[in-house]
Amino acid sequence: MIRLDGVSKRYPGQAKAAVSELSLDVRDGEIVVLLGPSGCGKTTTLRLINRLIEPTSGRIFLDGEDVTRVDPDQLRRRIGYVIQQVGLFPHMTIADNIGLIPRTLGWDKKRIRTRVDELLELVGLDPAAYRRRYPKELSGGQQQRVGVARALAADPPAMLMDEPFGAIDPITRERLQDAFLDLQAQIRKTIVLVTHDLTEAVKLGDRIAILGEEARVRQYDTPSAILAEPADEFVASFIGSGAAIRRLRLETVGALPLGPVEVVRDPADPVPGRAVLVDGDGRALRWLESSERATVVVRADQSVYEAVDAMLRARDEEAVVVDEDGRPVGTLSWSALIREAPLAGEAR
Ligand SMILES: Nc1ncnc2c1ncn2[C@@H]1O[C@H](COP(=O)(O)OP(=O)(O)OP(=O)(O)O)[C@@H](O)[C@H]1O
User: Fold this and answer.
1) For the chain, which terminus, N or C, has the lower number of CB atoms within 10 Å?
2) 232 and 264 inside one domain
């Protein structure tokens, strides 16, 4: 979908290239994160893709078409662009900001208005409450949502995002990341996102390209594979410690081998060993024998990280694993978790 073929950029008067011989394939509908130290050429790479700057050499393809020579304005309508500073026009309403590109495309007023409302809904802002406001009347996180809506206005197949959640407080940032992933599940754009935050990269990326100096690709793979097997010392040091814990966020409880679970419907039923009391619909209530202690119940589709967190907080060595309806499907013991959890450095 987006393909860079030996792309280089040397800024005038600079001894070193900002981007050197970069080749990268981004598939339809995936989020590729460019991750690397400050100054390694991430922003330059994004701006090369939408031709805000021109490559010194190399070629860029969009949907199989060589776009190195097409009209940059037309190209930019096919690629949404979201930046950290959002860049909303302060004297324009939210609706006018979002409608900017549709207006330049000559859409009629009614179509623009419908599209603006649709986009505000999509990014979780009530159109009636927000379309007439000005950017300064919105929080940073809300402005960021408007920035995303504006980038999506003309329904481009691809989107470039430069540190989109960078300037936002950690709690709002997590919420926006979650909302962004929900949105992407609906719209399936092809996205290249720049960050220098490993946690963000692991959470958002289908694949991560770890870039070194001059945007040289040091490793390009799934978050899980990079955490498990960093390609070299540079990647390993960039990932740093905590790789094992980060991987726990990527694996679901259901992927681990679970122990058997015994269920009872009537608290008076005698059973050997530990059993889970269930209600009339078969949903887990608690461990039969511990009416006063909290029972750790985790869903099979939750991350192993969340299971560990819940078990540590409850100081319990065993969790009841349930399906999406709350019915027990097995148990997860602490010892099995330590034994079976995927760890960094371990090939699976
Ligand atoms: N307009 C410019 N003129 C000259 N050099 C530039 C220009 N823009 C960027 N550079 C240089 O190119 C290199 C790559 O910069 P770029 O902004 O792409 O890096 P980055 O990885 O996005 O960095 P950061 O994470 O700090 O934003 C840097 O050495 C930078 O100083």
Assistant:
1) C
2) no
Q: Is the dihedral of CA 222, 225, 227, 232 positive or negative?
A: negative
Q: Which tokens is 301 given?
A: 């589709």
What local confidence, expressed as pLDDT, does residue 210 receive? 96
Residue nearest to atom 12 of ligand 1 (CA): 18
Considering 250, 272, 298, which residue would you say is the last residue of a domain? 250
Domain assignment present for 346? no
CA of 11 to the centre of ligand 1 (A): 9
In this structure, the residues whose C-beta lies within 6 A of any atom of ligand 1 are 11, 14, 18, 36, 38-44, 196
Domain boundary among 229, 250, 271: 250
pLDDT tens digits along 49-69: 999 999 999 999 999 899 888
Give a yes or no: residue 54 inside a domain.
Answer: yes
Q: Give yes or no: residues 52 and 196 share one domain.
A: yes
64 and 108 in a single domain? The answer is: yes
Contact 9, 52 (CB under 8 A): no
Across the chain, what does the average pLDDT equal? 89
Q: Which domain holds residue 280?
A: 253-340
From residue 100, give the alpha-carbon distance in Å to each of 92, 126, 266.
10, 19, 64
pLDDT at 132 over 90: yes
Which of the two residues, 271 and 301, has the higher pLDDT score?
301
Residue 225: exposed, middle, or buried by beta-carbon count in 10 A (0-12, 13-18, 19+)? Answer: middle
The ipTM is 0.95
Q: Mutate which of 43, 160, 194, 200 to test ligand 1's pocket (most atoms within 8 Å of Cβ)?
A: 43
